[in-house]
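Structural prep section.
Before we set up the soaks we want a predicted structure of the protein with S-adenosylmethionine in place, mainly to decide which crystallisation condition to try first. Input record follows.
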Amino acid sequence: MKSKANYQTWIRMHKLLIFFIISLMLLSITVIPVNVYVRLLAGILALPFLYITFILSYSVYQFAAFGGDYQSKIHDLIAAKVNGDGEGKILDIGTGSGSLIIKLAKAFPKAKLTGIDYWGGNWEYSKAQCQQNAEIEGVSDRIEFLKASAAELPFHDHEFDRIVSCLTFHEVKDKSKKTEVLIEALRVLKPGGEFVFLDLFMDKKIFGDEKELINALKNHDAAEWNSCKLADAIPLPKLLLNKKVLGNAMILSGRKI
Ligand SMILES: C[S@@+](CC[C@H](N)C(=O)[O-])C[C@H]1O[C@@H](n2cnc3c(N)ncnc32)[C@H](O)[C@@H]1O
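Run finished without errors. Recording the tokens verbatim:
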């Protein structure tokens, strides 16, 4: 058994590798003895790939524990917004490698916790990795990890006292209207229960107008809610504020009637 938990970053390494390899291939054309226009074109085409490779590598560095550790800091921020004595049932939707739900298990020793994820092939997280991380952190007896889609949660109405989710709703492919995924999350929350959701809520192309989103939540029993730009809640390195990274990230938290 490993002695250190492995929490992968939000950046998919295979995606980074693809951009890196394409950049290298295009750059290598610029130094081989072929037509000068072909070399010039390859050089120009390499620029966007190099830029994306740089942004992705920089993000990995800033998110990882060996760099800026921002992923853990952002999970701490979400965990700090979870109120109460921590008793009862807590759900993390799209748990990834289990980092957030494990933090919550440590913060709330009396809680029973569930992490769900679909752990699709396009991501590098797995249920086995979550279970191993929970064991290493000494909280595996109170966390259950389940494979399920956020679009259709395998729970009865009102099952959970608290629900958290980090950067998952926008990823759910089996619902075109992402607001419906939030509403599905609220369905399994108890009346009086609390939610803390972080996602790219300011991206209108994904979630529509912010007011519409808030109205949708209000119409589905979200009694009290707060919205807060991630960048206002925690100082982030400038490049992470790129719209393709966390520039559109916002925390929505509140309580169900
Ligand atoms: C950016 S990662 C965030 C992971 C984790 N919440 C964290 O903060 O470390 C997005 C997560 O959404 C999950 N996901 C994508 N579509 C999903 C779906 N339909 N149902 C459940 N999880 C999904 C992915 O497997 C991945 O773990």
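Observations: The longest helix spans residues 36-63.
Flagged for discussion at group meeting.
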